[in-house]
Design goal:
Shape: globular
Structural class: mainly beta
Distance between the termini: 40 Å
Strand content: over 45%
Radius of gyration: 15 Å
Order of helices and strands: EEEEEEEEEEEEEEEEEEEHE
Strand order of the largest sheet: 2-5-8-11-14-16-18-20
Number of strands: 20
Helix content: under 10%
Length: about 170
Amino acid sequence: IEGNVTLDADADWTSRGILRIDDYATIDLNGHSLTIAGAYGAGTITNSSATLGEVHFVVPTQMVQTCSLALLGNIKVFKEGDGTLSLNRAGQTFTGGVVVDGGTAKAGASCPENGGYWGAEGGTITVNANATFEFNGNSYFYYKDFVLNGGTLANYASGMNSTDGIGNVTL
């Protein structure tokens, strides 16, 4: 995607494969849901509507998807599929939280500036059955709460910064 796109309905773009979203391109959810197999590039997914927008990353088995997009505004992120999703862009300010429904969601390195890799300060990361959220030893979560609905929290590096970054954990 090279320009700006505004959704006027829910969209499933998984058949397009992994999307390239160029640096100055923006997808505006406009209060809708976008389902994608993955994305790369330094573009932006935003939501100009007061209605919660959703981004569903459906990452297939044995695939690791690293995403450097900016996710901004009233957006909830869903990680689906058996593969791994890693958000690697600092300053993420989406506010709707995260639901890990399958596979692994992996935290990137530390990001002490305005918002973390997994959204703005506060919010909830829900990890459902058959899903894992993996910490990096240097990750900082801006006081996010974790809800484990049969899912797993794991640390793939030593030296977790949990006392500064994790809010409540509900089992």
